[in-house]
Design brief:
This protein has 2 domains: about 90 residues, Up-down Bundle (Chorismate Mutase Domain, subunit A); about 250 residues, TIM Barrel (Alpha-Beta Barrel), CATH 3.20.20.70. Helix content is about 45%, strand content about 10%. The chain is built from 13 helices and 10 strands. The radius of gyration is 28 Å and the shape is elongated. The protein binds phosphoenolpyruvate and manganese (II) ion (MN). The site of manganese (II) ion has 5 residues, from loops.
């Protein structure tokens, strides 16, 4: 074959490419029209019977040189792309996603913004044990300029024989301390029926890792007008985490803080494995503020400082850590809580790294 003949064939192939392109897009437009008509009739768009008929007709007409399986594969892709064209991409996107809302959501806790570009801290004991215990941490936190105090009143413990928390009594202690020290408080709620009660006592409702897929609890938290801090499940993918947040936002509450708290892996050096890359991924994919709980993700006091540094460096909106006046006698998570002196050191080391409001 001469060079000129080869060139002519190539030109012919180029022309056919453009014809195919034109036809594929023409088909796309027809399918879009079909989609609109189906929507008007309220009919579900994917129709396997119709797809099978089309495929059969195509295969019966195929006289090569492509094999049936090749033709089937190519047309299957065209059908799939057409179906996607019928589905409006915008409407499919989650409400928590940046596709749906490009700007950052700022969560306002007691007048304090979270997610406005600044970085902040949540500290406090694992569990509320007594007024004196919570007040001691509140005093230390306040001295360090921290605005949000944590403390568990309802504790989701691995064993039913472990300390389960003081319940409502614990919430009352938190509220008293919050009022006295001018702090906002966050506490975990484990039962949908307790959400209403919590409104009177806490500024942020925490939903714990073990309840990340407690859908009734998520819906109940979504139905109230109170900020929610949602922790990532022990073995939850980021997609599952975002869908859990979607349960809350879909009920009308967009005041959600996501919290990475480590996931289960085969690594035993730490209590959980801190998935630090979850922070920039969640920041990219969603418009919600993201916190990192360094205590439960590591379970090790010696890692609280380096992991908190990492969280701040990677762009978290804040860090959560557990602080107890006398960790040795704590009723839960004794080994991993900082005492006041350790907390002071920790926060002083971190302060120069904290980003102020943009
Ligand atoms: C907590 O923060 O008190 C707690 C129980 O953490 P998690 O749900 O992440 O285990
Ligand atoms: Mn704890």
């Amino acid at each position: 074959m001469s060079h000129a003949e080869l060139e002519a064939l190539r030109e012919r192939a180029d022309e056919i490419n453009l014809q195919i392109l034109k036809l594929i897009n023409e088909r796309g437009r027809v399918v879009q029209e079909i989609g609109k008509a189906k929507e008007a009739q309220g009919v579900y768009r994917y129709d396997p019977v119709r797809e099978r008929k089309m495929l059969n007709q195509i295969l019966e007409s195929n006289d090569g040189p492509f094999e049936q399986s090749t033709i089937q594969h190519i047309f299957k892709e065209i059908f799939k792309a057409s179906l996607e064209l019928q589905e409006d991409d915008h409407s499919k996107a989650l409400l928590v996603s940046r596709k749906k809302k490009a700007e950052d959501t700022v969560v306002t806790v007691n007048g304090q913004p979270i997610g406005d570009g600044g970085q902040s801290f949540i500290v406090g004991p694992c569990a509320v044990e007594s007024y004196e215990q919570v007040a001691a941490v509140a005093e230390a936190a306040k001295k360090q300029g921290i605005k949000l105090l944590r403390g568990g009143a309802f504790k989701p413990r691995t064993s039913p024989y472990d300390f389960q928390g003081l319940g409502l009594e614990g919430l009352k202690i938190l509220k008293k301390v919050a009022d006295e020290y001018g702090l906002a408080v966050i506490s975990e709620i484990v039962n949908p029926a307790d959400i209403e009660t919590a409104l009177d006592y806490v500024d942020v409702i925490q939903i714990g890792a073990r309840n990340m897929q407690n859908f009734e609890l998520l819906k109940a938290a979504g139905a109230v007008r109170k900020p929610v801090l949602l922790k990532r499940g022990l073995a939850a993918t980021l997609q599952e985490f975002m869908n859990a947040a979607e349960y809350i936002i879909s009920q009308g509450n967009d005041q959600i803080i996501l919290c990475e708290r480590g996931i289960r892996t085969y690594e035993k050096a730490t209590r959980n494995t801190l998935d630090i890359s979850a922070v920039p991924i969640l920041k990219q994919e969603t418009h919600l503020p993201v916190f990192v709980d360094v205590t439960h993700s590591t379970g090790r006091k010696d890692l609280l400082l380096p992991t908190a540094k990492a969280a701040l460096a990677v762009g978290a909106d804040g860090v959560m850590a557990e602080v107890h006046p006398d960790p040795a006698v704590a009723l839960s998570d004794s080994a991993q809580q900082m005492n006041i002196e350790e907390f002071d050191h920790w926060i002083n080391e971190l302060r120069p790294l904290v980003k102020q409001k943009a």
